[in-house]
Specification:
It contains 2 helices and 6 strands, in the order βββββαβα. The protein is of the alpha+beta class. The chain has a single domain, classed as Ribosomal Protein S5, domain 2, CATH 3.30.230. Helix 1 packs parallel to helix 2. The longest helix has 23 residues. The protein is globular, with a radius of gyration of 14 Å.
Length: about 120
């Protein structure tokens, strides 16, 4: 698996991905790793548009990262993608949440640039 690493809110975030047939699978984890949300991205070659759907496990808040990650990933790879997110930090503050979200968005953008090459 290929990967991108970043430190945010004092934890290591790891974005890993691999090609699976014609499609792609990615995971973004950090802190106490788990599956918090899973996004599935789709690419329509006719309209050249990507869309995504997400399933979030009860009590988890990674929905937006998984949804946006799956859409961006499918748009970049022009294929179906699965984007798993599981980030946990005990007693997380609002500033730490914002730092993790910003780092996640940067990592997803970096991934898109790598995949589009």
């Amino acid at each position: 698996m290929l990967e991108i690493r970043k430190i945010a809110a004092g934890i290591s975030l790891v974005l890993e991905w691999k090609k699976t047939g014609k499609d792609y699978v990615a995971s973004l984890t950090g802190g106490d790793e788990h599956v918090g949300a899973v996004g599935v991205g789709f690419y329509d070659h006719e309209s050249k548009r990507a869309s995504s759907s997400v399933v979030t496990t009860p009590g988890h808040r990674e929905t937006e990262i998984a949804l946006n990650g799956a859409k961006a990933f499918s748009k970049a790879c022009k294929a179906t993608s699965v984007f798993i997110v599981g980030i946990h930090l005990d007693n997380i503050t609002l500033n730490e949440i914002n730092e993790i979200i910003a780092a996640s968005e940067e990592m997803i953008s970096e991934l898109a640039v790598i995949i589009e090459k």
